[in-house]
Amino acid sequence: MDARTSAAPEQQPDFGRMFDMVTSFWVARAVHAGTVLGLPDHVAAQPRTSAELAALTGTDPRSLHRLLRALAGVGVLAVDAEGRYTTTALGDTLRTDVPGSLASFVQLELGPAHHGTWGLLPDAVRTGEPVFAAASGRPIWEYFEHTPEMADHLGKAMTGLTAMVADAVLEVFDFSSYGRIVDVGGGEGGFLTAILAAHPTSSGIVFDLPHSVAGGRARIAAAGLADRCEMVGGSFFEKVPEGGDLYTMKWVLHDWNDESSIEILKSVRRVMPDDGRLLVVDTVVPEGGGFSPSKIIDLNMMVLSGGQERTAEEFRTLLDAAGFTLTRILPTASPSSVVESIPTR
After folding, report:
1. 254 is an active site residue
2. Which of 32, 114, 199, 254 is catalytic?
3. CA-to-CA separations, 225 to 162, 182, 242, in angstroms, rounded
C-alpha cells in the first residue's frame, strides 16, 4: 500500500470557528453599549422606533439605528414590521427592574477598567501577577473603594448572579438542620436571603466590608428578614462573627491566592465550633482537557486579583492547611459547586 494513501488526512485549520471566537467581543461591546444607554428599559413598557429611542437617549439617530439593528440581529431586541423595537427574553435580563438583572454585571465586566485589564492578559501570564492596577491605576479592591459608581455595580452584579446560583445550591444542599448561618464575604446578602427565605426557622449573619453590607440592609428589610438576619461589617482577615453552626463562603476564595485564602479559612476555623460545617461555593476545575467555564473564570481571577479557581485536590490541600477536612463536593446546575468541609478532629 502506498504510504501516502494510508496516512491520516491532514488536519485543516478551522478559520471560521477562530474568526467567530475572536470577533465575539464585538457582540459583547454592542450589548454593553445598549445597556449603558438603557435600551432594554426604554422598550420594556412599550415598543419604540429608533427615532423615538434616539430622542430619549440623546444619541445620533443613524448610529443608534445601527446599534439597534445589531442587537435585534443577535436576539437581544426584536423589531416589528413598523420598525418598533421591543425586548426579548434575552434582552429582559438587562432590564434594571427585573429580579436577578444582569445590567450591572454587564457594566462591571465590560466597563473600561475591567475590560482594559483583560487586554493585559499576556503581562499577567509573563509575570504571574494581577494586572488590574496597571489598567485602572489602583489594585482592584482599592479601585472599588474609590469608585462608588462601579462599587454599586459590583454589589448589584453579585446580587444578580447570586440569584442564579442560590437556587442551584438549594437544590443540592439541605440547610434545614442549621439554626445559625454566617455568610462570610456575603456582600449585600443575596445568598443568605435566599437560604433564609427557604428555611423560616433559621437565622443568620451577613459579614463583609462595611460599605458592602451597608448596601444590603434595605434589601434584607424588603425581604422581611430584618428580624432574622444581621448585617455585620468587618474584615475576614481579622475576625469572623462567632455563633454559627454553618459558615458559607460564596465566590470568596477564588478572589485570593493560596496564602490569603488560608488566612481567611483560619479566621473561620478559629470561631467555628468543632461540630460546625463550612460550605465553599466556587467553581471546581475538572482535571484533563475539554471545555469548562471554570477554566475561563480562572483567567478572569488571574488578571483581576491574582486569585484562582481550583481543582478538587487543590481545595483539599487548601482546606487541610487551615484545619478543615473536605467531606464532599456537590456539583450544581450552575458553574459553581458546593465544597463541604468540617473541622479536622
Report:
1. yes
2. 254
3. 17, 14, 20
